[in-house]
Amino acid sequence: MNAPLPVEVLKQHLIDPEICIRCNTCEETCPVDAITHDSNNYVVDPEICNGCMACVPPCPTGSIDNWRLVVRAEAYSVQDQLGWEELPGEKVLPADTAAEPVLLAPADASVPGVAAAPVASGASVPPWSAAHPYVNLYTHKTPVTATVVGNYRVTGADTESDIHHIVLDFGEQPFPVLEGQSIGILPPGTDAQGRPHYARQYSLASPRDGERAGYNNLSLTVKRVTQDHGGAAAHGVCSNYLCDLARNDTVQVIGPFGHTFLMPNHPRANLIMICTGTGSAPMRAMTERSRRLLGTGDIGKLMLFFGARTERELPYFGPLMKLPRDFIDINLALSREAGQPKRYVQDLIRERAADVRDLLADRNTCIYVCGLKGMEVGVLDALQDVVVQSGKDWSILHEALRREGRLHFETY
Ligand code: A2P
Questions:
Q1: Which among 57, 65, 59, 55 has a CA at the least distance from the CA of 21?
Q2: pLDDT tens digit string along 203-220?
Q3: Domains, the chain, with CATH or none
Q4: Ligand 1 centroid vs 307 CA: distance in angstroms?
């Protein structure tokens, strides 16, 4: 007589809606398109996820790294997860379960229409010498209140790009951060469904020891959103809230987030920084960190490629141009400056091929790319051209840059 088959237990991959900051990193990373979202949640399709873990290291909050043992027939569906406001607890499993839980779709399962996993562009580890970051000290349930101590526009008043530099002070409350990390802002009010708005993520524009050295404050670079990606009129909930804040207003903050887009901490490390628009925030943080170390003999080379429509729409243009030329090598790519040809950061990388190549050849060089999603491919192509021109193999170098935590992307 045959014994009944044991009930199959599955290790189901879930995303914690209370910690997730809806940054889309997981959905972009998932090689089998198992992650999807609606206006409420990011969720994992149990029919597709193969537990490959590609999405886990890049997640800035760790909300992606949640698992529940469930009976296969009772796995949480995408519809279940989209309605969640918190993760369910562990289920009590029946006694006759199979000894070993399995992933919902075996790693080698062929999912129709799904291509092989692409190689991620950037590293999923920090540079070896990066300082240890703190993450998730404050969550949606336990936000910290910060006070606005500064809010001013850093682009020309007559331009379309309304970009603000906003300084938040945390008073006596601990809020340790590193350059390259981000925080979440909880805008007040509710969404169309009457639920509290979820947090919006902003990169820090100030270094670890504060916007003002020795103060428990930090800064953000925020562009007022008035259009969607297609150019249609749209009102950015959080960006408009932040840009309209006055001194002494208070803000609910969660985070910090991010454990890979961090600067090297060892002496004479070089930085290649490539950004557009508000993607300049982490570059400002890293540059200011380096500037404060001037005179110690610890600073390596800094090379900046910065893209904006015009000089007047380039955030921090004035202070940037005052930095000493022997401290930072500044390359501005202006795309809509009257009387000048349209230029993107990748054009300038090609123009500066010899210097970029020399820096790339030095294992003390780390590369950071932050800004518009579209530039990711363009920058990678430009770096590849620069390397190939000198007779080197880009795929070998690219792999080393990723493995050694020396090439980082943050695009949106
Ligand atoms: P463009 O004038 O073609 O829009 P924004 O002001 O919209 O934040 O953009 C910042 C800069 O990034 C602008 O100069 C913009 O040029 C440029 N940009 C747009 N798309 C790309 C891309 N694919 N690669 C590099 N730069 C880009």
A1: 59
A2: 999 999 999 999 999 999
A3: 1-115 (3.30.70.20), 144-257 (2.40.30.10), 269-411 (3.40.50.80)
A4: 7
Q: Is 43 in the pocket of ligand 1 (CB under 6 A)?
A: no
| Residue whose structure tokens are 């169309």 | 192
- d(CA 194, CA 399) in angstroms, rounded, equals 46
Largest CA distance in the chain: 87
Ligand 1 in contact with 336 (CB < 6 A)?
yes
Q: What is the pTM of this model?
A: 0.87
Mutation test of ligand 1: which of 229, 274, 309, 334 has the most ligand atoms closer than 8 Å to its C-beta? 309
Distance 194 CA to ligand 1 centre (A): 35
Q: Which residue among 222, 228, 276, 316 has the greatest number of ligand 1 atoms within 8 angstroms of its CB, and so is best to mutate?
A: 276
Relative to the CA of 278, which ligand 1 atom is closest? 8
Instruction: Give the span between the Cα atoms of 289 and 303, in whole angstroms.
Output: 14
Q: Verify whether ligand 1 is closer than 6 Å to residue 224 (CB atom).
A: no
Taking the C-alpha atoms of residue 50 and residue 210, their distance in angstroms, rounded to an integer, is 42
Atom nearest to 308 CA in ligand 1 = 14
Q: pLDDT digit string (tens) for 96-146?
A: 665 566 655 544 433 333 334 445 789 989 999 999 999 999 998 899 999
Instruction: State whether residue 72 is helix, strand or coil.
Output: helix
CB of 378 within 6 A of ligand 1: the answer is: yes
Q: Which contacts qualify for 235-240: CB closer than 8 Å, 24 or more apart?
A: 237/187, 237/189, 237/191, 237/197, 237/200, 238/185, 238/187, 238/197, 238/200, 239/200
Distance 305 CA to ligand 1 centre (A): 13
Contact 196/176 with Cβ under 8 angstroms?
no
Among 297, 18, 106, 300, residue whose Cα is nearest residue 286: 300
| 330: nearest Cα among 384, 255, 275 | 275
